[in-house]
UniProtKB/TrEMBL annotation:
Limits of the Myb/SANT-like DNA-binding domain: 25-99
Bias type Basic and acidic residues, positions: 1-17
Organism listed in the record: Folsomia candida
Domain of life, source organism: Eukaryota
Transmembrane regions: none
Single GO molecular function: DNA binding
Function summary: Involved in transvection phenomena (= synapsis-dependent gene expression), where the synaptic pairing of chromosomes carrying genes with which zeste interacts influences the expression of these genes. Zeste binds to DNA and stimulates transcription from a nearby promoter.
Keywords assigned by UniProt, alphabetized: DNA-binding
Keyword DNA-binding: yes
InterPro entries attached to this UniProt entry: Myb_DNA-bind_5 (IPR028002), RNaseH_sf (IPR036397)
Protein name: Regulatory protein zeste
Pfam family, one: Myb_DNA-bind_5
Region (Disordered) location: 1-20
């Protein structure tokens, strides 16, 4: 039966069913992102051109997305049109959320937003919630293997003259290396972290901690006015 052969009652019923679908779950969200982020799919569904050729290709692409999406366990069976609508809704909500996100929401505070290359490759503005958990898991791995805790920047004990090497906000060089890498998928985030984790050794930990202690003492000597006097601190630190 072609769409033109459907009665008004059938069309109203389908519209009613679509509107009654439950909100997409985090599990479904992750699967949808993984499917749509495939280059052969994303290059079509995210194309902004409007003509008959691209419209037909987009329809076919969303049908493929629907088949692959519905093949997973514990997901709501949805058509291509329904998944397209869910995808657009996810992007809209993600853009609003990103605009309201504060830097304190991220485990590493120096990152304002998710790295640009990640966003470009996968549209990973949708990864905002997931990336925090990945980084949190990574920090736990660092602590488990090296007994080093990574604390929030706001919790740095600037008034202490000394601290344990097993509880510090260090690894500045390691952090920069980590987030200069290119991530291409959810698994890529964790794989990159494990790769960088394997590069950590006791010499790096000792060197970073010693550097941090010297900087900390300078901050204490400046009576906490390290933000205004940052250039002077760097000059004294050289």
């Amino acid at each position: 039966m072609s769409p033109s052969d459907k009665s008004d009652t059938d069309q109203e019923f389908e519209t009613h069913v679509r509107s009654k679908l439950p909100p997409i779950t985090p599990h479904e969200k992750e699967i949808l992102l993984q499917v749509v982020s495939k280059p052969e799919i994303k290059s079509i569904v995210e194309n902004k051109e409007i003509n008959r050729v691209w419209t037909a290709q987009k329809t076919e692409a969303w049908q493929k997305v629907s088949l692959e999406f519905c093949s997973h366990l514990n997901v709501t069976q949805m058509s291509g049109d329904q998944l397209k609508k869910a995808w657009e809704n996810l992007k809209g909500r993600a853009k609003k959320q990103v605009s309201k996100t504060k830097r304190s929401h991220y485990f590493f505070r120096w990152i304002k937003v998710i790295p640009y290359k990640m966003r470009c490759k996968l549209g990973l503005d949708l990864l905002e919630d997931e990336i925090v958990y990945k980084i949190d898991d990574y920090a736990k791995e660092v602590k488990k293997l090296h007994w080093i805790s990574t604390i929030k920047k706001s919790d740095i004990p600037v008034n202490l003259h000394d601290a344990s090497s097993f509880d510090f906000f260090g690894f500045g060089q390691h952090k920069r290396r980590l987030f200069q890498r290119n991530f291409c998928s959810f698994d890529g985030v964790w794989k990159t972290m494990i790769t960088e984790l394997s590069k950590i050794d006791q010499n790096l930990a000792t060197k970073t901690f010693s550097s941090w202690k010297r900087r900390l003492r300078l901050i204490v000597e400046k009576d906490g006015r390290h933000i205004k006097n940052i250039k002077q601190i760097h000059k004294n630190f050289r």
